[in-house]
Amino acid sequence: MIDLSSQEKIKEIDDLVSGWIKTLAVQTKEQRAKHGLKVSNKDGDHRNLVTNIDRANQKVLIDKILALDPDAHFVCEEAGEARAQSMDGQVWFIDPIDGTLNFVLENRDYAIMMALYEDGEPVLGWICDVPAARLFHGGQKTGIYENERALEPLTDKTLTDSVVIVSGRRLVVGEKPYGELAQRACAFRVLGSAGISFTRLFAGSAQAYLSKLSPWDLAAGRALAEGMGYQVKNLDGTSPNMLLSNSVLIATSSIHREVVKMVKD
Amino acid sequence: MIDLSSQEKIKEIDDLVSGWIKTLAVQTKEQRAKHGLKVSNKDGDHRNLVTNIDRANQKVLIDKILALDPDAHFVCEEAGEARAQSMDGQVWFIDPIDGTLNFVLENRDYAIMMALYEDGEPVLGWICDVPAARLFHGGQKTGIYENERALEPLTDKTLTDSVVIVSGRRLVVGEKPYGELAQRACAFRVLGSAGISFTRLFAGSAQAYLSKLSPWDLAAGRALAEGMGYQVKNLDGTSPNMLLSNSVLIATSSIHREVVKMVKD
């Protein structure tokens, strides 16, 4: 168990892990530039990619956490690690490369994400936009930062005045309420990475994000978004189950109310 | 008339205009940071925005061109300048802020765009991603550059292996073939700015872009894209009319063939 009993202790863990991730982000870019990528498909799906760097990054982060807490529990994207069966106690979430398709095809808009939860509640989250070298980190108790800069408190905007980000895949197959949300917003974006979508919310470039997210896609973003005052809820208004996939809306309070109404009507 | 009779003369114009745009990009960011924006709607549409900076930038660029060629003809986004009635001779295209909605709401992903055509053919194009300080410039005769760096020649990729960018507005109202193109590509993106979408093609992060574009949205991107080997055609295979709006597909040759077939079937 890691001592998270005071703001100072939590801040120490934030600083420590932020250092790991910054180093790993630099190494990720260097490795790709020097050695290229070994890419394979997961589950025979040509859109679901994994690379040697996804796997290597996950191992680096797990080893560092285990050195800190030999009994740590994990929920990781890539195979190879036993998955936590409950949210009791402390659970670490790791997405070693979020947006692997972007990493492979676009060489931009991918992220390293980590989060630490205690008894089901987010304590700290980290999302590093690797190509842009921007690390968003912190939580409810420490405040939310972009690199060293504390972020502005959230302004509550309505849908008509907002930019929303949606999962392209769910929009294009006609899943509700993706199309209606996109149409009613001032503008919408499709970016292909949960981590990068979250960074747009933190930077104030967008006010809502709707997608179906796996635990490792959601955990860090939820910790940071809730720390800034965003609502993070399933479309039926319940809290996400952090061990399953959820259709989650991360949005200002006003947009959340509008979408819950949209879904009911 | 500007002398465009040799590669050297064209290169001189490229350098000159690149200098104007770089300066204007810095001023645009400074002005916004210092004085904020005066925003108004065009045609009573809350998504069609114009700011004081759009208007000021257009005037700066027109004045510079008129100092070079007092008889210059223009096709500009903002009101106030007589619009060229034909593509005979030399025509300058100006989009003083492309992605004004992004400029206002997101403070990222907007561009300054210019192009010079002679007798209907693109000679030079400039697209400056203002927040990222990346200027793409050049043409068929000079080569295509990102700032000082010559860009890689185009690799011909097929739809299944490609990232495509589409107009979100046209996708979400069900216009053909936006949805099918998005579904059949490896991934798709919605970015909200023609200029920024073009820069993704030039940087190799995407391989196709489909949208309905006004002349000032298309002119610079067409000059640069054709210079790199992209096909720039209407969905029926004809060449865009540079004085009207066009539903244009900018894509690798393979993707162009696939989409023309998709539209016919």
Structural overview:
2 copies of one chain form a homodimer. Chain A starts with 6 loop residues before the first helix and ends with a helix. The radius of gyration of chain A is 18 Å and the shape is globular. By secondary structure, chain A is of the alpha+beta class. The first copy, chain A, has 2 domains: 7-150, Fructose-1,6-Bisphosphatase, subunit A, domain 1 (Fructose-1,6-Bisphosphatase, Chain A, domain 1, 2-Layer Sandwich); 159-264, 3-Layer(aba) Sandwich (D-Maltodextrin-Binding Protein, domain 2). Chain A contains 8 helices and 14 strands. Chain A binds chain B through residues 46-47, 101-102, 105-108, 160-163, 168, 171-173, 179, 182-183, 186-192, 200, 203-206, and chain B through 46-47, 101-102, 105-108, 160-163, 168, 171-173, 179, 182-183, 186-192, 200, 203-206.
Biggest interchain interface, per-side counts:
A-B, 31 and 31 residues
Elements of chain A, N to C (H/E)? HEEHEEHEEEEEEHHEHEHEEH
Whole-number total of structural domains of chain A: 2
Write down the overall geometry of chain A: globular
- Overall mean pLDDT of chain A stands at 95
Kindly, what is the distance between the CA atoms of the first and last residues of chain A, rounded to a whole number of angstroms?
Answer: 46 Å
Oligomeric state as shown: homodimer
Beta-strand segment tally of chain A: 14
Helix content of chain A: 25-40%
Strand content of the residues of chain A, in percent?
25-35%
Radius of gyration of chain A: 18 Å
Summarize the main sheet of chain A: 7 strands, mixed
Strand order, largest beta sheet of chain A:
3-4-5-6-7-8-9
CATH topology of the largest domain in chain A, by name, is Fructose-1,6-Bisphosphatase, Chain A, domain 1
The H-level CATH homologous superfamily of the largest domain in chain A, spelled out, is Fructose-1,6-Bisphosphatase, subunit A, domain 1
Instruction: Name the poorly predicted regions of chain A.
Output: none
Q: Quickly give the CATH architecture of the largest domain in chain A.
A: 2-Layer Sandwich
**Derived structural class of chain A:** alpha+beta
The tally of helices of chain A reads 8
* CATH top level class name of the largest domain in chain A: Alpha Beta
Cofactor (chains A, B): Mg(2+)
Organism (chains A, B): Fructobacillus durionis
Keywords (chains A, B): Magnesium, Metal-binding
Protein name (chains A, B): Myo-inositol-1(Or 4)-monophosphatase
